[in-house]
UniProtKB/TrEMBL annotation:
One of the Pfam families matching this protein, by short name: Myb_DNA-binding
GO molecular function: transcription cis-regulatory region binding
Annotated gene: LOC107807473
Region annotation Disordered: where it falls in the sequence: 131-163
Coiled-coil intervals: none
Top-level taxonomy: Eukaryota, Viridiplantae, Streptophyta, Embryophyta, Tracheophyta
The name this protein goes by in its record: Transcription repressor MYB5-like
GO CC field: nucleus
Subcellular location: Nucleus
Gene3D superfamilies (UniProt xref): Homeodomain-like (1.10.10.60)
One GO biological process term: regulation of DNA-templated transcription
Transmembrane segments: none
Predominant cellular place of this UniProt entry's protein: nucleus
DNA sequence: AAGCGTTCCAACCGCAGTCGC
DNA sequence: TGCGACTGCGGTTGGAACGCT
């Protein structure tokens, strides 16, 4: 674990504003940055501004490139399909904007975050749905949800609470068949068959797959098996695809669209009667 | 047309993870 | 092992654009 930064200076040279320009980028700056990256490639952001002749910090250059100048960045309105996908992915991943953006071609994490904050969260609230938990707002004060709501709604940036936030954001939408009190960085072991016997095959497999991911960053943790690591991105991609394409999501999102919310969330508690078959 | 409040989004900030020395 | 540099992420902010009166 990284040493807390509070014990030393927080101002890195990159953040020092001495002599560096801030604010909106000019077309000239955009052109300089684009030309440089086209020639030299991405990366080495720290030294890039000096080499390119820009009076910007590396962070600013990276952000401008990633969110605006990259050729793959799609401009324009979010389509209904994209909106639906964002809803599904947010329900699955929480405020993991970069992960969500990674599933939506051409969209950046910043764009999706902004769209969520300005459109989708308000839309869900207007429908009586807590945009953090995707549960009905009416239940947010119930004792069973307090431990989740309190942590999820905390804006405190302390490292421990942030990890707790992340864990709850992830664990809440997805059923995990056992309590995880382990350190968050540890991988989850699926060897708890007694707790998952009631799951149907699909959900068993989904949770088994989830259990092999590091819950903190959703990268697969395969117990130091490098041969498995080489394909884990593909596995995770397939896993996400299988989840976001499931009919259970379709039916739920249809109800969300209609301003309703299902009584029961099969992903949170799949042992209830209305589990749905996967395709 | 002017003033004011609201919305939206590009950009900034601080923190955390990773890596190399 | 510890430290610093670098990078990336998510939350927040500032101000331009927009809408209403």
């Amino acid at each position: 674990m990284r040493t807390p930064t509070s014990s030393k200076t927080k101002v890195t040279p990159c953040c020092s504003k001495v002599g560096l320009k801030r604010g909106p980028w000019t077309p000239e700056e955009d052109e300089i940055l684009t030309n440089y990256i086209n020639k030299e490639g991405e990366g080495r952001w720290r030294t890039l501004p000096k080499k390119a002749g820009l009076l910007r910090c590396g962070k600013s250059c990276r952000l401008r490139w990633m969110n605006y100048l990259r050729p793959s960045v799609k401009r324009g309105h979010i389509s209904p399909d994209e909106e639906d996908l964002i809803l599904r992915l947010h329900r699955l991943l929480g405020n993991r904007w970069s992960l969500i953006a990674g599933r939506i071609p051409g969209r950046t994490d910043n764009e999706i975050k902004n769209y969520w904050n300005t459109h989708l969260s308000k839309k869900l609230i207007s429908q009586g749905i807590d945009p953090r938990t995707h549960k009905p707002l009416i239940n947010r004060n119930s004792s069973s949800d307090d431990h989740i709501t309190n942590k999820a709604s905390s804006s405190s940036p302390s490292s421990s609470s942030k990890l707790a936030n992340d864990f709850n954001t992830i664990s809440n939408p997805i059923y995990i068949p056992f309590q995880m009190e382990e350190p968050l960085r540890s991988s989850i072991n699926i060897n708890h068959p007694g707790e998952i016997t009631s799951l149907d095959d699909y959900q068993y497999q989904s949770n088994a797959m989830l259990a092999n991911y590091n819950i903190d960053d959703l990268n697969i943790v395969v117990e130091e098996d490098d041969e498995m690591n080489c394909c884990r991105d593909d596995v995770f991609s397939s896993f996400l695809n299988s989840l976001i394409n499931e009919d259970m999501f379709n039916s739920q999102n249809q109800q969300i669209t209609n301003g309703m919310f299902p009584d029961f969330d099969p992903l949170v508690n799949p042992t209830q009667d209305n589990q749905q078959e996967s395709g």
